[in-house]
């Protein structure tokens, strides 16, 4: 089990694994498979939170966006995922690293959550990603999703190997645009989903980093990329009825606070002056505030930060630290300088009275990611809302 749930009162990341390095790393041994302690669930939450157990061949992932499909069922969207046969417990014995997987958690009050994972061709010698491009040269990393009636929309970053990158280059990839996966039968079992993938934007706009309902519209938090590690967050919107086919319906917020037809242009408002590839924007009725939660602006960042606003598009407060990643504290037993944490999101379908925050940790050294089963798996902490 790799989940930990803690209660705290105080208060962009880059995915680094490559298939070539992974093939070499399968020779490494693993020693920490079963050392993670079970999570102790917070008793004041209306619903229990899932534990991301290593089960049925699912051996760890990052990302971990979530959205409610029913009052008791949540969809979890994972990025790069180590997978093996159903009985496999160690990453060193995994068959492949697929670029994305999904999970369904069923969490009923008074009972432990049930988690089921999905990817394609799980029993084949070479499994495939759940959202599969059909080639290893291009892949998808999930962003946020939105459910409208029975139609589920999921934003996807389209990624490829960076031309000229060496196999040992941990950051040897580049974003080439965003896509939108639409599923018309979202309440069916995921292995029976009918998935269509549509083009959204080119590499300049990373649309759907967070999706927020706002009246008759859906707000798309969008990173405007101005070069590697540079840019800012803008907002675009579409009518909810146009979510599955936004072409021709886009509007973006300009510097003068006016909504204008089209994709975000040079005059787009910098609603957050930080390029953020993973975040969540969610409303908390107990404090009547919106929270934008992400890692801090530095990389690697040792902390999760929150911004508050009265509107889903800001203006946002300055970022305030709400959590320090214990895995990155130098005085912590087991500290490793190569470990970094990221993929910060919150999950309001489980509670609005507190912050149910998830994050993942990784290593700059792939061999350590393979060997250490206590990292590279979502962890959940329960935090108090800002005063």
| CATH architecture heading | 5 Propeller
Structural class call reads mainly beta
Average per-residue pLDDT, rounded, comes to 88
Number of strands: 22
Largest β-sheet summary: 5 strands, antiparallel
> What would the CATH topology be?
Tachylectin-2, Chain A
Order of helices and strands: EHEEEEEEEEEEEEEEEEEEEEHE
What number of domains? Answer: 1
CATH homologous superfamily annotation: Glycosyl hydrolase domain, family 43
Q: In CATH, what is the class?
A: Mainly Beta
Q: What is the tally of helical segments?
A: 2
What is the molecular shape?
globular
Strand content: 35-45%
The share of residues in helices is under 10%
Low-confidence runs:
3-43
Would you give an account of this structure?
With 387 residues, this protein is mainly beta. It has a single domain, classed as Glycosyl hydrolase domain, family 43 (Tachylectin-2, Chain A). 3% of the residues lie in helices and 42% in strands. It contains two helices and 22 strands. Strands 2, 3, 4, 5 and 6 form a five-stranded antiparallel beta sheet that branches. It has a five-stranded antiparallel beta sheet with strand order 11-12-13-14-15, with no helix packed on it. The longest helix is centred in the first third of the chain and has 7 residues. The N terminus is likely disordered.
